[in-house]
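B., you asked whether I could sanity-check this one before it goes into the benchmark set. Here's the sequence:
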Amino acid sequence: MDLMRTFGSLQLVENGTAWEMSRLEPHVAIRLKQLFPRVPKQSAGPFRFPRDLMHAADLDWFLTRYPLKMTGEDREVLTGGRLAFDLQQAEMERILMPDYVAPPLVGLREGEEVRPYQMQAVELLRRRRSLLLGDEGGLGKTYTAGAFLCAEPAALPAAVVCDPHMQKQWRDKLTTFTNLRVHVIKQAKPYDLPLADVYVFRVSQIAGWVDIFSQGFFNAVVYDEPQSLRTGTSTAKGGAAKVLSRHTDYRLGLTATPIYNYGVEMWNIMQFIDDLVLGSFDDFSREWVDHNGRITDPKALGTYLREQHVMLRRLKSDVGLELPKVSRIIEYVDYDEKTVQSIDDLARKLAIQATTGSFVERGQAVRELDMMVRQATGLSKARAVAKFVRLMVEAGEPVLLMGWHRAVYDIWLEELKDLRPAMYTGSEGAAQKNKEKDRFMSGDTDVLIMSLRSGAGIDDLQHRCSVVVFGELDWSPGIHQQVIWRLDREGQEDPVTAFFLVSDEGSDPPIMDVLGIKASEARQIVDPHIGVQQVDNDRSKFQRLVERYLARTKPVGRRKAPAQALEPAAETRVQESLFSTAP
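And here's what the prediction gave me:
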């Protein structure tokens, strides 16, 4: 006769797909809610949990303190789940040990090889089937994906989803590194596909292929830079990606910067990699998000994702591939006072409307204010930026010049027309982008003007250039770091220097201010074991711009501040703002 006291009951429900805990004594229910933040605080029960290995381990642990009534069959299932979890964790940890030796790999071109740390990711994915690979830029995430597709025949045929300008690079890398047959998708609607192992889609094409995805044609999907899906399934591409992920057996995301803005984006991204690990959005919000929509403990979220082995990230220093430190220099440049002052009156009106208008009027006003002030800021310093770039070129340095607005590009093109800059921006199609990149790589020009948001994933620039000049800033710190990683990667023979040319008027000051919040939160999730400086309180980026113009009571002045060289050992708030995930 079992005389053990019990505090409620636990049973399998929903045809064995979930655990239900019911009839808990009040003090046990309180303790449960403290230990399992996903449980709604206002709920009186019963409480349900997914039937997966992680919850089996957690529930089994909870029962050691608060035994619950269970049938013998359910008890056996729970214990089996906990043992399976322990075995899985032990196997994952074995793979990640420094002395791990992976099985032989076939399918590579003669003379090609995969590094041990890359094979660790391959074997982790083979077992876990879902992985967000966040290795620091330059560690060969594309090659890791190719190695996995060679190592796991059951993953073929596979789909690769990437930005438009990355299709050619994916084809070239896979065909030179492996024996895989690669087809580049040509259209945004289905057509008769040739026989291939890997099909490379532009992210803008996948919405038209949903019917094919739903048929289970692909066994694996690789999302290159999945932060392009950070808005979730509310968009056509997000909805299509969800269908694709649901009908594949293996899901791999490749990005060193999964978060461009705030940490809540991680839930959306994980829906395409592993939609169970963070639970429903309500579960995620209760467990990880505060009332302002911010992650309450970014470090804890980062370590949790690692403990689940759904996210793997290594720095260059972790794998013995330490490159010289990047020199990050902020240079205050002269600006055209009239250009900035020309928008002052309208900017103040928009700022007032942003605080006093209706909900729709406020939203429209802040967006217009943002677009107007950022462009005016870029225009006001465009000629000074062009002069700076010319000095670099005359000193013998090819330059990667980053911007955002077409009107700013036009001034740069006019000021530097004798240097015949190449263009890699939103105005060029994928084929033209590749031609312009080739022009820069061949030495036909020493200046490549690139859009801030075109930098993710591009390779080979490190063989031509070690200087990047940011002529305009982006609101997202991950964008800046993605650009720097285009140069700071294996194959770079010279120390990389990143110049941030800023003015002390217009949008630069509030952008530099708000980036600190995003950088702090994103970095703690991606690199939870690296100390991070808390940089600010919580206010939206647009609110800062609004407040700047509401507070303006006198005309702007003009000054030129000396350059600031930012040393890693003495990281400042501005540095933290601009360089999100750099250790």
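One thing to flag: Residues 349-354, 531-546, 552-583 have pLDDT under 50 and may be disordered. Otherwise nothing jumped out at me.
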